[in-house]
Amino acid sequence: MSEDYTLLRSRQDLAKKLLALGFKIGPFEIRAGDSPAPADLALPVFRLAKETKQNPADLAALVAQRIDLSDTILNSVQAVNGYLNFKFQPELFARAVCADYWRNPRRYGSFPLGKGKTIVIDYSSPNIAKPFSVGHLRSTVIGQALYNIFSFLGYRVVGDNHLGDWGTQFGKLLCAFELWGDTQKLQEYPTRHLLELYVRFHETARNDPALETRAREWFRRLESGDPVARERWQTFVRLSQTEFNRIYQLLGVCFDVTLGESFYADRLTGVIERALKTGVARREKPPRNPGRTPSLDEEVDSEETVVLIPLDSSGIDVPLILQKSDGTSLYATRELATVEYRIQTWQPERILYVVGNEQEFYFQQFNAALKLLGITVPCIHVNFGLIRLPAGRLSTREGRVILLEDVIPEAIERAKALLANRELTMEEKETIARKVGIGAIKYADLSQNRRKDVVFDWNRMLALDGDSAPYLQYAYTRTCAILRKAGEFNPANADPTLLTAPEEKTILMHIARFPEIILASAENYEPHRIANHLYRLAQDFSIFYDRIPVLKADTPQLCNSRLALVEMTGTVLKIGLALLGIEVMERM
Predict the structure, then answer these.
(1) CB 415 within 8 Å of CB 431
(2) 84 and 226: one domain?
(3) In the chain, what's the furthest Cα-to-Cα distance?
(4) Is 113 within a domain?
């Protein structure tokens, strides 16, 4: 892998040179700069200084004197305040980066990292009978971006939309529909009507606790195959999926598998029996405070005997409950059945769960239970922050939701308004507005660290300038416009050594860093690294565009060389945005 791209290869070369001097350094301890000054690569020596009990500045000076940079494309090293700052030989660096790119432009930045390996990604996973709100957006777009990134790195990726179509909440919904449901409203606007019923149930249950008992009975009937319960539930599922699919189509999101929790219903008894037989689980009363559960809808009666997995051996004092006293399952039971199925069906190297921060404790329980059950495939919680309203968190129970089907048309209309005076056909305006509007929604999420909460802000989410998808999309169209005006050009006639202006060197460094940014995004499950890198590239390309003549360069060869740089920039923008699930256009 280290031999595929210039920066990675240079890091590896430096690590070997330092090892020859007796210092063990990981290649990624050597940092890449974002600009040609003050360093192209830099190594902080503070860890080494601490290990060898030396002054960092003295150690850096000593290494700078002794390191041999021959047979590398580095030509200088300077010790500065405990750092070793390395500079590339400009002509060799430019040639190496361009050679990397022209080897396979369409796949620039990819690696055969995942050859022969499978990853399952569980993402989006909305609850049936609830509208698709902006609260579902994060899992959906983060999961799709990770799907794209790992696919680009050669993995076989299975995208699984694990629909929430089972559980106690459906007992509540069936109960509410029996009391207040309207068949005509259900057909006209299904998930909105079902949300109304769900909210009404919780409001009424505050003063009428007997409703909870009726709801539990409805769920028991559903699990036992009662025809009335099953038929109504299937209607809820069918109508909800139709609405979800419309949203997915607008977002350009797709899945390899869409299996709800109900798919695993016939596997639940086996999961429970195996856990009991091996002694991992046992029947007893749960603790009076059973801790946080994966869903606020899954209450457990602490006075009745349940099936649970004690997790004390893992340092967790809250057991994982698999079966309630009335014989019905819980979310965890269904998740264990799901992971068994995924392992049997796809033999994944790992399974990613793109689920909110609030489920962190549950995943600690879940992974501890998997270990006790002998399941060794890593199940990784790719956590993310909530989308909050200025008044507080979104809440389906309280009816505080912002529907995605309202947000998307608004974004498209705002984009369309920007195109009003452009010389484009109506069809072109419609297509561009869709790509710009939806791109803006996705980028507003993906450009932020996934772990942080996001306060919903129409202006922030639908921003069409600054650090936004439209800004990046427009940078790409600029590259296309330059190349169109140039007509055909032959990259073979380009001479990378002519790219000596600071603006050109800066763009070359961005292009050189792109492969390792993709790697870091995959290793840390952080698509925002790609988004942030593309934004910096677009900013510096704008500076290059304003200051450096391309078509009016002094010589034809210099023009060709700069056109090659423009094409490389456009390709990196296009590939990076595609990894984020954002479309580009040649005119805008």
Answers:
(1) no
(2) no
(3) 86
(4) no
Find the length of the chain. Answer: 588
Residue pLDDT, tens place only, 242-292: 989 999 998 999 999 999 898 998 999 999 999 999 999 999 887 765 545
Rg (CA), the chain: 28
What is 136-198 written as a DSSP string?
GHHHHHHHHHHHHHHHHTT-EEEEEE--B--SHHHHHHHHHHHHH--HHHHHHSHHHHHHHHH
Q: Is residue 46 in some structural domain?
A: yes
Please measure the distance between the N-terminal and C-terminal CA atoms of the chain and give it in whole angstroms.
37
Is residue 391's pLDDT more than 60?
no
Q: Does 324 map to a domain?
A: no
One-letter amino acid at 182 equals D
pLDDT tens digits, one per residue of 126-149: 988 887 877 789 999 999 999 999
Beta-strand pair 156-161/118-122: parallel
What's the CA gap between 572 and 578, in Å, rounded? Answer: 10
Chain CA centroid to CA 446, Å? 7
Which token pair is 135? Answer: 């609260």
- With contact defined as beta carbons under 8 Å apart, do 580 and 530 qualify? yes
> Are the C-beta atoms of residues 241 and 128 closer than 8 Å to each other?
yes
358 and 439 assigned to the same domain:
no
> According to the model, what pLDDT value does residue 1 have?
45
Domain end point (choices 88, 107, 141): 88
Residue 407, pLDDT above cutoff 90:
no
The rounded distance, in Å, linking the Cα atoms of 426 and 420 is 10
| 244 and 361 part of one domain | yes
Residues 12 and 71 grouped into a single domain: yes
For 168, 202, 292, 301, the CA distances from 326, given in Å and listed in that order, are 12, 22, 20, 10
User: How many structural domains does the chain have?
Assistant: 3
CA distance 75 to 88: 6
Distance, CA of 128 to CA of 194 (rounded, Å): 10
For residues 512 and 453, state if they share a domain.
yes
Note whether residue 182 is domain-resident. Answer: yes
Q: Give the highest mean pLDDT range of 112-116, 217-221, 576-580.
A: 576-580
What is the average pLDDT score of the chain?
90
- Is residue 185 located within the same domain as residue 56? no
563: containing domain: 404-579
The helix, strand and coil proportions of the chain, stated in percent and rounded to the nearest 5, come to 55, 10, 30
Same domain, 228 and 352: yes
Which amino acid does the sequence have at 534?
A: L
Q: Which two tokens stand for residue 270?
A: 């086996």
- For residues 80 and 198, membership in a common domain is answered with no
Task: Specify the residue for token string 């507003």.
Answer: 444
